[in-house]
Amino acid sequence: MKTAKSLLCGALLSAACFSHAASWQDSLSSAASQLNSQNGNQLSSLGSLLNGGNQALSADTMNNAAGILQYCAKQKLASVTSTENIKNQVLDKLGLNQQEQKEDTNYLEGIQGLLNTKNGEQLNLSNLGDTPLAQKVKTKACDLVLKQGVNFLS
Predict the structure, then answer these.
(1) pTM of the model
(2) Is 13 helix (H, G, I), strand (E, B) or coil?
């Protein structure tokens, strides 16, 4: 009788463990598919930014462009020498002195990697990640904003 009870308890315990394991595996599977879905959406978003034309990655204001240039130089997403040079010339042309730079929202957002785009959206370059595709998007944005700065100075 004692053996039968032990076997029955063992069977019940095994069933409970298997049930819990199946539930845990289902939860894990669900989380993995959700993560894949989010990554797929992010990859799709990054791809559309690369192919979306210059409006999606160009700064709306030159103040924001100057801040983005500072961000790009700091993140080594563009040539530091030319980026710093263009940024300083843009700030000079805008007439933004050191104090005004500290108070200008568009400039401060740019320094943080927040690109206020010409199509009215805000793209956070810092949150794009470090995947090769994200790096391409960041580099393209930096290149476009650098060209904007050069055109602004002409």
Answers:
(1) 0.65
(2) helix
Beta-ladder partners of 124:
114
In whole angstroms, give the CA distance from residue 148 to residue 59: 8
Query: Tokens representing 144?
Result: 């476009």
Question: Which amino acid appears at position 112 of this protein?
Answer: Q
CA–CA separation, 144 and 138 (whole Å): 10
State residue 114 phi and psi, 5-degree precision: -90, 105
Tell me: the pLDDT tens digits for 84-116?
A: 889 989 999 999 888 888 999 999 999 999 999
Can you give the pLDDT at residue 40?
Answer: 43
Scan for tokens 């990554």, then name that residue. Answer: 39
The Cα–Cα gap between 61 and 152 comes to: 11
As a whole number, the mean pLDDT across the chain is 73
The Cα–Cα gap between 36 and 126 comes to 21
Check: CB of residue 67 under 8 Å from CB of residue 144.
Answer: no
Say if CB 151 and CB 86 are below 8 A apart: no
Tally of CB atoms within 10 A around 69: 29
